[in-house]
Amino acid sequence: MHALTFSRFGGPEVLEWTTLPDPQPAPGVVVVRTRAIGLNFADVYRRQGRYHLAGSPPWIAGYEAAGEIVAIHPQDAGGAFAIGRRVAFADSAFANAELVAVPLDRLIALPDDIDFETAAALLLQGLTAQFLLEDSHAVRAGETLLVHAAGGGVGQLLVQLATAKGANVIALASSEDKRRSALAAGARHALDSGLGWAGRVRAVAPDGVDVVYDSIGRTLGDSLALARTGGTAVFYGMAAGDPDPVDPRVLMDRSLTLVGGDLWNVLTTAQERQQRADRLFEAVHAGQLRVSVAAHIPLREGAQAHALLEGRGSAGKVLLIP
């Protein structure tokens, strides 16, 4: 098989199109032929050397893809999954390849009306948005939310799901195209996230917002300042670097809540994965959720995809196509 690999850390240029042995099924592990692969910032961070990587190079990044099962161990024959079954996964390693060995408990069965590209563009970011709106903070109708990076993959889905719950969304995005995407997703306001962004938010929400969703990191102090007294900040990413330390007195003096958000703390069983994914699929089917794909790029040209994502010029999901 072929895979997109890297043997040293650096920019997109370190990525290589490599021939590797085909993975083999094992008890509890099937082989999936990928048809669409979701590219995420975590893949960029791994390529840059910001995450610990197990094993020896060449490394294969990627955790999210959709395709069909092409090999299964005899011990698992006759179970819920069989050869030819259309599946996806959001948290199984080495996805940037034509063939991937995936544990059975990481597989998500796809309904007939969800195609491979929709699944690969939806699952990781959709499950994240769903978790942020239900587990990190249970959003209620009428609440006002401030969403950073609202034109990105998680941001667009978060805006749509929040709007479907009856929330009012103030979106922050870095370009006119991304702000238009946020408005199309249901945001009431779409503001420039460049210099002076906090003042622009204060102009449309003078009393502060109920909840801030902050995936930028360095902005967390300003996010807390923009939350109303008794409000909440949900911190779930560090796209611009680690936040400055937060003085607990800030939380106490204004009765603020600061919540961390990590999907993997709740996505712990096969049943939980499937149930949460099924609710996303139902939202797509009902027209409540529209999946935006910014680009379809051949897997062998993965360096181009990484450069596009890293440059933050894409509004929506970047897909790699084997």
Descriptive tags:
single chain, 322 residues, Quinone Oxidoreductase, Chain A, domain 1, Rossmann fold, 2 domains, 7-stranded mixed beta sheet, globular
Element order: H for helix, E for strand: EEEHEEEEEHEHEHEHEHEHEHEHE
The beta-strand count equals 16
Number of helices: 9
Bulk shape = globular
What features would you describe in this structure?
It is a single chain. By secondary structure, the protein is of the alpha/beta class. The strands form three sheets. Strands 3, 5, 6, 7, 8, 15 and 16 form a seven-stranded mixed beta sheet that branches. Strands 11-10-9-12-13-14 form a six-stranded parallel beta sheet, sandwiched between helices. A three-stranded antiparallel beta sheet has the order 2-1-4, with no helix packed on it. Strand 13, helix 7 and strand 14 form a beta-alpha-beta unit. It is 30% helix and 26% strand. The longest helix is centred in the middle third of the chain and has 21 residues, at 116-136. It is built from nine helices and 16 strands. It has helices at 41-48, 116-136, 153-164, 176-184, 197-204, 220-226, 248-253, 270-285, 302-310, and strands at 2-6, 15-19, 29-39, 59-60, 65-71, 86-89, 99-103, 108-109, 144-147, 168-173, 189-192, 209-214, 227-235, 257-260, 293-298, 317-321. Helix 2 packs across helix 3. It starts with a strand and ends with a strand. The chain folds into two domains: 2-122 and 267-321, Alpha-Beta Complex (Quinone Oxidoreductase, Chain A, domain 1), CATH 3.90.180; 141-260, NAD(P)-binding Rossmann-like Domain (Rossmann fold, 3-Layer(aba) Sandwich).
